[in-house]
Amino acid sequence: MKHGITALLALATLAGCATSGIEAVGRPNAAEVQKRLIIHNEPLARKITITKMRTRTTGGLLAVEATLTNLGDRDIRVQYRFSWYDADDFEVEPAKHSWTPVTLHGRASVNIQGVAPTPSVESYRIHIRETR
Predict the structure, then answer these.
(1) Residue 117 is part of a domain; what is its CATH number?
(2) pTM of the model
(3) Based on the structure, what is the number of domains in the chain?
(4) Residue 31, burial from CB neighbour count under 10 angstroms (0-12, 13-18, 19+)
């Protein structure tokens, strides 16, 4: 029984590490990036940062662009995805959000973009996780 509990705890720990990352939360014209950044993975947060976040409305849909910057000299492979929320903070079309891979080269930046699936979207979250 003791070994079974230890194995379950180890599995839960590994599962948590596999999905932890950085999450940026925002609304159009929101305050500075640091106020919208939620860090779930301190080691990843020491390696990359979100240096800019911009929004605009195009054809009635919210569009977001964020700049990810690698703070170190080594390449880092990450995945990102956008989650979209309506005025009541309900997620819009959650099954359609997929992870997109990107490589951040040493000391370089890359822009990531997303467009809301419907005009009802009023806020967003950008999820970032490191891949191995």
Answers:
(1) 2.60.40.3230
(2) 0.77
(3) 1
(4) exposed
